[in-house]
Specification:
Blueprint lengths: L19 H10 L3 H18 L1 H14 L19 H50 L3 H6 L2 H52 L1 H39 L1 H6 L3 H54 L11 H19 L1 H22 L21 E11 L2 E11 L4 E5 L6 H8 L7 E6 L2 E2 L5 H7 E5 L9 H5 L8 H10 L3 H5 L18 H15 L3 E5 L7 H15 L3 E6 L10 E6 L2 E6 L1 H7 L2 H9 L7 H9 L1
Parallel strand pairs: 3-8, 3-9, 6-7, 7-8
Antiparallel strand pairs: 1-2, 1-4, 4-5, 9-10
Length: about 625
């Protein structure tokens, strides 16, 4: 295996106590119990009516065709039954036809009831699981692969639905069939019934052994599915990189490795399954053969061995029909157990995701922030993504309302982490961050995040129309407001030239737009939301000079009068900031405005001199020159 191919297990989504499948059924099944009850009644009655034809056939053979016994049906008063043989034959015919017809109707009721029930539960589980996942901390997503989460939301939830739709009904039918047939057999001939049912204890013990062995194998299989999904999703999304770096062979090997993991996990399940199902068939078949042999000997030469009494031909025919119907569901126990263990493994992952603890929490009675002035203060803030690996240490600064504070420094110094802590994507390890004097941990999350707008280098756009992406987060914005924001962001011109203007679909992550166009759409989005605090994270570092000028002019309009944190590598873009903070290795090593830091002759001055010949004009200078 290539060393770059991760072997870490990304499946562990949190500890789960008890039976997760039973918990999901209790939580989501109760609201839909009428549908489940309809399916249950259909299943019970469908299997019950299925016992009528062989029972009536045996009675008819012994009473009507051979005249060995009176015509009698269980649970039916004798006074209701005809006395003439031909009428008895017609009644038997009618009962058999009616049983088959009712069986079709009850099977339909079971199918519809269980199907609607399972689909409603599937919908509720998927929606609630996504909602729970969406509220988890960013630290959770740092450690999890997208394919694993998609596997839970799609494959695992679908497994749960399949189990409820078909397997629950099958299990109910199995119980009804076994109990019903056992009752009929004992009613007909208790001695011969013991022969037929002797395999049941053996089947039960073997099934319990199988369940204990198959459970961890299904857990591994569900994890392998997520691992394969993760690799496939990553490769499809990164196809351009794969092709331009001629890495097809390397990725073939990685997909082969992930697929082999799934193959091995699936094969382990299949091997055990192929041991279990044939053994179940064998035990059930032996029970049928023993019934046939002993019953046949009984009819030919009288009761064998310890058996006593008389066995009629009709009884024996009913026994054979009933025993065959008894064998089939017993042999199908393996399919039910397999489906249960598969669904249980999926339920374990679903519950594990839902119950993942959240650390960035909100007090329901949090402090409101209706009209922030925009004062930001970092007070001796320290933070680490992983224990023992500090990213920020003792960072302190103040941004007064309307000020622009620039964060500069080398890649990985911790600049972007400042922005993430401000909006509480993570919580500080030590110290505190305040907005308008309130600790951000005391504020309502919705108020805090509405107050802060973010424009970054890595713009994320959704696969929808330009209009939908500009209005994202301001969903009730009018057409006039959307267009005004686009004009202010210098995006209206290129949007109007698109095939369908604002209704043009831009593809996944905005792939149909250029980098500069995507950036201006994100600026238009921020303008439409009109936040009181702005964070600009390398907002112009990946575009050409002409596009950068347009973006800088748009940013100048956006930041006018707002408290702004600018994260930049190009120092020319922050030369007019009120305060420049130089961050190295998570600490503030220099602080001051542009002129003060140049005069200091330290780290900032060194960086400035290195970039001076390449630096573009700052956005406020570009805007002024354009207006002139």
């Amino acid at each position: 295996m290539h060393p770059w191919f991760s072997t870490d297990d990304p499946v562990d989504l949190g500890p789960v106590e008890g039976d997760p499948l039973a918990r999901l059924l209790r939580q989501y099944g109760r609201a839909e119990w009428p549908l489940f009850l309809a399916g249950l009644v259909g299943s019970l009655l469908g299997r019950t009516t299925g016992l009528v034809p062989p029972l009536v056939l045996g009675v008819t053979i012994d009473a009507v065709l051979s005249g060995r016994t009176p015509y009698a049906l269980p649970l039916v008063p004798s006074g209701w039954l005809p006395t003439a043989s031909l009428d008895q034959l017609y009644l038997s015919f009618g009962l058999i036809v009616a049983a088959f017809a009712l069986g079709v109707g009850f099977t339909w009721l079971q199918g519809v009831g269980m199907s609607v029930f399972s689909n409603r539960v599937q919908h509720a589980v998927r929606v609630d699981t996504y909602a729970a996942m969406q509220r988890l901390d960013m630290a959770f997503f740092d450690d999890k692969q997208t394919g694993q989460l998609l596997s839970v939301l799609n494959n695992d939830v679908r497994n749960l639905k399949s189990f409820l739709d078909s397997t629950v009904g099958g299990a109910i039918q199995l119980v009804v069939t076994v109990v019903g047939i056992a009752g009929v057999l004992f009613w007909l001939n208790a001695q011969l019934a013991l022969v037929t049912l002797v395999a049941v204890p053996l089947l039960t013990v073997f099934t319990l052994w199988f369940m204990r062995r198959i459970r961890p194998l299904y857990r591994d299989l569900r994890g392998a599915v997520g691992e394969l999904n993760t690799r496939l999703e990553a490769n499809i999304g990164g196809m351009e990189v794969i092709k331009t770096t001629t890495a097809e062979g390397y990725e073939d090997a990685r997909i082969t490795e992930a697929s082999k993991g799934y193959y091995d996990a699936a094969l382990a399940v299949v091997r055990l399954d192929y041991l279990y199902n044939p053994t179940m068939d064998l035990l059930a078949g032996v029970a049928f053969a023993a019934t046939f042999l002993i019953g046949g000997v009984w009819l030919v030469s009288g009761p064998p061995g310890p058996f006593t009494g008389e066995l009629l031909v009709g009884e024996f025919v009913t026994f054979l029909f009933m025993t065959q119907r008894f064998v089939d569901p017993l042999a199908g126990v393996g399919r039910i157990v397999n489906a249960y263990e598969n669904a249980r493994a999926s339920a374990e992952r679903i519950v594990g995701l839902v119950e993942t603890p959240v650390t960035v929490t909100e007090d329901p009675a949090g402090v409101p922030l209706p009209t922030p002035t925009g004062r930001i203060a970092f007070e001796d803030v320290s933070f680490a993504y992983r224990e023992g690996v500090p990213v920020l240490e003792g960072v302190s600064f103040v941004a007064e309302p309307g000020d622009t504070v620039a964060l500069v420094g080398s890649t990985g110094a911790g600049k972007s982490t400042v922005a993430k802590l401000l909006v509480r994507l993570y919580d500080v390890g030590e110290g505190r961050i305040t907005v308008d004097g309130h600790d951000v941990r005391d504020l309502r999350l919705s108020d805090l995040r509405r107050a802060v707008g973010y424009v970054g280098q890595d713009v994320f756009l959704f696969d929808g129309s330009v209009r939908e992406n500009v209005a994202y987060g301001a969903f009730d914005a009018s057409e006039e407001d959307i267009e005004a924001a686009a004009r202010a962001a210098e995006a209206h011109g290129f949007i109007a030239e698109l095939p369908e203007g604002y209704d043009t679909r831009i593809g996944e992550r905005g792939i149909k737009l250029s980098g500069g166009q995507r950036q201006r759409v994100s600026i238009a989005r921020a303008m439409l939301q009109d936040p009181d605090i702005l964070v600009l994270d390398e907002a112009t570092s990946a575009v050409d000079t002409e596009t950068e000028g347009a973006i800088q002019r748009a940013l100048a309009r956006l930041t006018d009068g707002k408290t702004t944190l600018v994260i930049a590598h190009r120092l020319s873009t922050v030369r007019d900031a009120d305060t420049v903070l130089v961050i190295e290795d998570g600490t503030v090593v220099e602080s001051g405005n542009h002129d003060e830091l140049l005069a200091l002759g330290g780290r900032y001055a060194t960086l400035w001199n290195a970039q001076a010949d390449l630096a573009p004009l700052p956005f406020d200078v570009v805007l002024t020159a354009t207006e002139d």
